[in-house]
Amino acid sequence: GFSLHLVLPLALLLACRGGGAPASSPGVESAGAVPEREEVERVLLYPAVEDGLLHAERVRMAPGATPEESMSIVVSRYLQGPAGEGRFSPYPDHCTLRALYLVSGARVVVDLGGPVTSGAGVHTEVHRVYGVINTLVWNFPEVRSVQILIEGREVETLLGHLDLSKPVPPEDRLLGLELRRAEGIGGSGGE
Length: 191
Fold this sequence. Notes:
By secondary structure, this protein is α+β, with helices and mostly antiparallel strands. The chain is 22% helix and 20% strand.
């Protein structure tokens, strides 16, 4: 099983999100200079009100100094919910990313906190689990599966419907048509 001895505090993982340049890089943000790391566009996949499938919301954010930090920034922003209309956040307010680990080149462990297990229903659980997983895989194609922890502990399920006792791969059937076309999945038929 997964060893929790590797747990790093969230503050350490997200330390570089705080704003200015680190002390070891004076002058990086000086007037007229190009920032060392410009923001990057990421795609957050939120369920749409009209069809319940995951659709893209494009946002600009800091790139992160490492793959783990970049992934942490994406998941933290995902938990804040969509900015646009027509999509909704599957997570209740006050859910947080406690930590994120890149266990192997292809497996990520996401440790969530807050009221992640509140609510009910298979659709709510599917949107919560696959919203995060498919968002990570879309932005970081090297990721093949995600293990979800709650408050630092392995869980069997969030709301009683999906098996979270092991890493979960993405689910392409939940992608909206425009995303499926972009990936060359499932063309135009009625599946």
